[in-house]
Amino acid sequence: MAETYINPLIIQRADPYIYKHTDGYYYFTASVPAYNLIEIRRAKTLNGLAHAAPRTVWRKHESGAMSKLIWAPELHFIDGHWFIYFAATDTEELDELGMFTHRMYCIECDAEDPMASEDNWVERGQVKTDKDTFSLDATTFEHNGKRYYVWAQKDKAIKGNSNLYIAEMANPWTLKTKPVMLSKPEFDWEIKGFWVNEGPAVLHRNHKFFMTYSASATDENYAMGMLTAADDSDLLDPASWQKSPKPVFQSDLSTNQLGPGHNSFTVSEDGQQDIMVYHCRNYSDIKGDPLYDPNRHTLVKPFSYDDNGYPVFGKPVPYNYL
Amino acid sequence: MAETYINPLIIQRADPYIYKHTDGYYYFTASVPAYNLIEIRRAKTLNGLAHAAPRTVWRKHESGAMSKLIWAPELHFIDGHWFIYFAATDTEELDELGMFTHRMYCIECDAEDPMASEDNWVERGQVKTDKDTFSLDATTFEHNGKRYYVWAQKDKAIKGNSNLYIAEMANPWTLKTKPVMLSKPEFDWEIKGFWVNEGPAVLHRNHKFFMTYSASATDENYAMGMLTAADDSDLLDPASWQKSPKPVFQSDLSTNQLGPGHNSFTVSEDGQQDIMVYHCRNYSDIKGDPLYDPNRHTLVKPFSYDDNGYPVFGKPVPYNYL
């Protein structure tokens, strides 16, 4: 029997990332409302993550490039080592383009238990690309012996906040190849409020790579799109990726689920069911900047596939706690 | 059959306060890690509070006396109106005594649903006492037609951070009588790290009033004490209150439950079982100021009474999530 997941699963965690490790634990990290530190929690069940005591593993610097707005950490286990990718900046102010000024950073933990101590985490510095512009939301995956890095970044020649890029990695904090753009905001549902493509997440199923991402402003217009590539194609060739013209997941006003997005993927406890992890708001009458309203919550949703092997995400799940 | 409560119940909420209302909901509020706003959540079960989406009901001011370190809100329903008491200050800096500089404030919501909108909450100002000193952790209760206010406050003539006081109220934000001190830090377990009596909570059972409170520094030395008064005595007379010479609840190093305290009281879903609500840490190797480490978590623990009608709180409960 399938587990019943209690939603919202985790209160006030945006940009949620869940990784099921070989030790049987689900590891969870996400943006915290104060944007001031990176934490990890773990549990043997997804529902258990709601109660799992986090451990702070990294704190923002007092000043400098890693001192403000710590966003969207992801925890990856690469060749026997733990890595966290995250975005950080030196100011909450916007630049002359009206944009935040984040760059991507990588930290590494060589201890077997990533939650043992903050002292085990070492900074590996900025993950540099070919442009020195606003960068965020990096993820990574491996295929056929090659490690890929996928992220969102501003190109001053392209309208909007950020586009999606891919490159091969030389090591977990260094790119090997020149970034290529896979998607930019262009459809009407990608340019509501802001022109945005961000938050990529990669799913490998049915001989295809699916890359979901989030588009538009992070209010009720926030919606998820998807790129698809055959897994025997050249993943560094933009022509290998087909962009879905419509959103694959979006707000459901009937259940007050607003702006679902910045998803990741995991599997059920028995490993048999794919599960999407995302955040969503449940009210839109926010006072002041939505960035500082903490009520983006983490939800989990099992999903299935259509006859062509494409994921069908359906609608945001309503709350079901008692 | 008794409910099984999952602990920690609520991650990263310190100074937890749960109120079971006549509408059948448990309402929860507490200090948030950023100390920047007051939120309320509600659920029909205690376990449901772990998943209940909060609503922000008040935000700190940009500057001035209510602009920093919003601490320990409590939600009370008084004569058909909702009130929240909380401590706030204008600076994170310590004063010439090495103390924080909080005062107590009251806000009121006249709407039936306290979570409907921030706009429904009105500031009633500072709850002034006879001294203009560090004040925090107020609670209130009614007995025999009189409303009482109980809180922690600094007296410059008494060693330590704060003592416990009681006064009768003229209305929910105004005292009617001169405050009288009920307890000050004096026993060895009340003066570890800092000399502290704070976080009072009131329980009326077995023809007695029990006032629990928290003592010493908020690390693993934090522990709970108790005052007891007969419910037909003059509650404004310090002589009516007997102080327990030993802590009634303290750290359990064997289960890594460190510094339990700042409790409140509620009852089980069927109303038959008294339950203590408190926060506790699970690690002590904190980097920097513990105030800015978010990992004080809310736990709930059913408790019983001894043959004399006194509560027996036992030991902090170990974590039991999967």
TrEMBL record, chains A, B:
It comes from the Bacteria. CDD domains: GH43f_LbAraf43-like (cd18817). The active site is at D15 (proton acceptor), E198 (proton donor). One of its GO terms (biological process) is carbohydrate metabolic process. The keyword Signal applies. The record marks D137 as: Important for catalytic activity, responsible for pKa modulation of the active site Glu and correct orientation of both the proton donor and substrate. The keyword Hydrolase applies. GO terms for molecular function: hydrolase activity, hydrolyzing O-glycosyl compounds. Keywords: Glycosidase, Hydrolase, Signal. Signal peptide: none annotated. PANTHER family: GLYCOSYL HYDROLASE, HYDROLASE, FAMILY 43, PUTATIVE (AFU_ORTHOLOGUE AFUA_3G01660)-RELATED. Belongs to the glycosyl hydrolase 43 family. This is Glycosyl hydrolase, family 43. The lineage of its organism: Bacteria, Bacillati, Bacillota, Bacilli, Lactobacillales.
